[in-house]
Design a protein that fits this description.
Layout (H helix, E strand, L loop, with lengths): L1 E8 L3 H9 L1 H4 L6 E6 L4 E10 L2 E15 L4 E10 L4 E14 L2 E14 H5 L3 H45 L20 H10 L21 H12 L1
Antiparallel strand pairs: 1-7, 2-3, 3-4, 4-5, 5-6, 6-7
Length: about 230
């Protein structure tokens, strides 16, 4: 079965296209979708939970970009998956293109979907499949708009932090006051030495005198004593 859907992005085509090609960024915007592995630049593994009427299904599979035209903003994708409970599978080929729409862009999607197994019985009506795809596209567009609206607000905040850090590093930091040099306590002088110095300052200066020589007279020679004795005896 084939059906068409569309949704709008609040960015001009030149800005919206790189966003739509960033699968890791936009995958969380798709309701029930989970990206489990990046095989290469154009191949991804994941799963998606959808509800077809009263039946809830979870498909796990592979999505591959077969063609990407960045100049004309067009791409073609193939996806295949199987139900986690073994109730069948789904294969889809989708092509989408981007065109200007006012101040933003409009994404036109054409899908060729094939269901197999019990899953095919759940989605026999094209109207049900198209309505389900349309609801998913609308929720995806709303989530993408919220993501895009939050991104510019976060960018300036991130840019402000490095700028404030750089200005803080550039501004001269006040130098911490250096401790005043400690002054040595006044030396305690000895009172006796001070008095000696003071008294010496009032003494008259000494004059130079020749050394006095003393002659020893207490000892007499033996000859002198004998002559003295003889004199007394006479």
């Amino acid at each position: 079965m084939e059906f068409d859907n569309s949704f709008e992005v609040p960015l001009p085509p030149a800005e919206a296209w790189p966003v739509l090609m960033d699968i890791q960024r936009i995958a969380p915007c798709m309701p029930g979708a989970q990206l489990t592995e990046v095989v290469d630049a154009t191949t991804y593994k994941g799963n998606i939970a959808v509800r077809l009427g009263p039946v809830a299904l979870t498909f796990a599979g592979l999505v591959k970009f077969e063609e990407i035209d960045n100049a004309n903003h067009t791409a073609r994708v193939k996806a295949q998956g199987t139900d986690a409970k073994g109730r069948g599978g789904a294969n889809a080929a989708a092509s989408f293109r981007l065109e200007p729409a006012g101040a933003g862009s409009k994404v036109l999607v054409h899908t060729d979907l094939t269901l197999s197994g019990a899953v095919a019985q759940y989605g026999r009506g094209v109207g049900m499949i198209q309505a389900t795809a349309g609801a998913l596209m609308k929720q995806f567009a709303d989530n993408l708009k919220k993501q895009l609206a939050a991104t510019p607000a976060a960018a300036p905040a991130a840019a402000t932090a490095p700028a404030s850090a750089a200005s803080t590093a550039a501004s001269p930091q006040p130098s911490s006051p250096q401790p005043a040099p400690s002054q040595a306590p006044p030396a305690r002088t000895n009172g006796r030495r001070s008095w000696s110095l003071l008294s010496n300052s009032f003494r008259p200066p000494r004059t130079h005198q020749a050394p006095v020589r003393y002659r020893r007279i207490g000892t007499r020679s033996r000859t002198t004593r004998l002559s003295h004795i003889r004199t007394r005896c006479q």
